[in-house]
Amino acid sequence: MEDKKIKWLIYTVLFGSIPILSRLLIWVVTQTGTISMFAASDFIAFGMILHISNINETEHLSDRDKSWKTVQNGTSFSFIILYSILSALIMLNEGVPSLVDASIITYCAMAAAAVSLIISFTVFHRISKIPLGEKP
Length: 136
What we know:
This protein is mainly alpha-helical. 75% of the residues lie in helices and 0% in strands.
């Protein structure tokens, strides 16, 4: 596995999944019903970390990849907007619980995070293929 992919896996994916992993650990060691197994906010944080990482990495690419970089940044900005909307829905749910279905928000956040992980992997896969001596 290339160095950039290993760094991506450790620094981005592992770090970004800390809220999800922490919640799962707490869920395992507490009594049933104390805490929910999954929360939308954990997946929203994970997805945002992935896309911010994508934006940061694509900023260092050369002009020959300008159109690909623009598409990736646009995709990341779109997902960040989606995650912001999901966050706003969570806040609305806290104020008026009957207004939105929290489980649907959680499922949407989980699905979006899975798609974000795939997108982020493809970005780092392409970046890792750039030869070491070549300016990205």
